[in-house]
């Protein structure tokens, strides 16, 4: 069900410090994260090799973790370095460690074969730490299969209905057919809504211009890793945005939404919504994030209700409509990658 040879986001950088530990379930594995005194990120299996007690119930001792059941000590690489009552340690006492990279204010973790962990495969999320853009790191926990969340992200026709008074605000969105493209394991969708009477409801009071609007959503889903990157915005109608001209009055955003499966029924949703105007106005950044969060809460309620119905009738098939072209392509790529990993595993 999960593509394992991939970089996933396991945490925001600010969640980890040099004194504490954090356990998070990823792809069904309980992983213990901590930041060493040198600042690097350690990620080891949150399970003592001895009697399977959670190491997160243990304690930090410098750059090591002591299991508080029988006292075994593990270093940042998962190697058992101390066994009480014995000189040296018993065989087979090490625990699994995972490759990590800290980038774009996030901790990325490779859940598959460590030999394949190439950091260059991490998608470009630089808007999260680019000084020309401002955003706030955020997190939502979903009680839902990660694929239902990806379906939602690949079908913006729902903005007309789920987000009628927040992120959407236009009947046009549901009627526009996006341009759907595939580039390797990436799905790209392009949507333009030209000559709209006004900006989306979530931007009310934030407008940088008046009059008709050209709106756009240009977004990519990078599979595996489930990294959704979006270029969106609003510009004065007829000012040239579809041709690539972004005038100074344009309100531009770069959204980063990353879905990491927790297990078959739960998911982690890491997101930020960067803007390139009103830079330095922290109050504006907070207010904008709060309005986006309101819209995302609408998504969460809908998707979790959807998951509940899926659980009630797991063998029933969903109908396919014309708006599903993007999400169907996303599902196809996931299935292809899962099949390829199964073949490779023999």
TrEMBL record:
CDD domains: RHO_alpha_C_DMO-like. Residues 7-109 form the Rieske domain. One of its GO terms (molecular function) is dioxygenase activity. Keywords: 2Fe-2S, Dioxygenase, Iron, Iron-sulfur, Metal-binding, Oxidoreductase. Coiled coil: none annotated. Gene3D superfamilies: Naphthalene 1,2-dioxygenase Alpha Subunit, Chain A, domain 1, Rieske [2Fe-2S] iron-sulphur domain. The keyword Calcium does not apply. InterPro entries: Cholesterol_7-desaturase (IPR050584), Rieske_2Fe-2S (IPR017941), Rieske_2Fe-2S_sf (IPR036922), VanA_C_cat (IPR044043). This is Phenylpropionate dioxygenase-like ring-hydroxylating dioxygenase large terminal subunit. It comes from Sphingobium vermicomposti.
């Amino acid at each position: 069900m999960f593509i394992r040879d991939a970089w996933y986001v396991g945490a925001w950088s600010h969640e980890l410090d040099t004194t504490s530990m954090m356990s998070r379930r990823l792809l069904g594995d309980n992983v213990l994260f901590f930041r060493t005194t040198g600042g690097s990120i350690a990620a080891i299996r949150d399970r003592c090799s001895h009697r399977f007690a959670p190491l997160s119930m243990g304690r930090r001792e410098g750059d090591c973790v002591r299991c508080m059941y029988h006292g075994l000590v593990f270093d940042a690489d998962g190697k058992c370095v101390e066994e009480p009552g014995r000189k040296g340690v018993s065989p087979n006492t090490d625990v699994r460690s995972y490759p990590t990279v800290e980038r774009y204010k996030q901790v990325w973790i490779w859940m598959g074969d460590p030999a394949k962990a190439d950091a260059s495969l991490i998608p470009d999320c630089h808007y999260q730490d680019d000084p020309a853009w401002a955003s706030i790191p955020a997190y939502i926990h979903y009680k839902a299969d990660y694929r239902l969340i990806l379906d939602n992200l690949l079908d913006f026709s729902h903005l007309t209905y789920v987000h009628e008074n927040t992120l959407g605000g236009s009947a046009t969105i549901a009627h526009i057919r996006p341009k759907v493209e595939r580039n390797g394991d990436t799905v790209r969708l392009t949507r333009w809504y030209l000559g709209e009477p006004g900006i989306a409801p979530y931007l009310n009071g934030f407008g940088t211009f008046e009059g008709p609007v050209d709106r756009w959503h240009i977004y990519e889903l990078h599979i595996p890793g489930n990294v959704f990157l979006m270029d969106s915005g609003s510009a004065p109608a007829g000012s040239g945005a579809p041709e690539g001209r972004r005038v100074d009055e344009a309100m531009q955003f770069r959204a980063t939404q990353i879905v990491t499966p927790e297990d078959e029924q739960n998911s982690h949703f890491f997101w930020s919504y960067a803007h390139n105007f009103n830079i330095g106005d922290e109050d504006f950044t907070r207010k904008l994030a709060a309005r986006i969060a309101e819209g995302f809460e609408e998504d969460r309620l809908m998707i979790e209700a959807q998951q509940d119905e899926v659980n009630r009738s797991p063998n029933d098939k969903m109908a396919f409509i014309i708006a599903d072209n993007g999400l169907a392509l996303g599902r196809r790529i996931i299935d292809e990658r899962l099949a390829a990993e199964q073949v490779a595993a023999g």
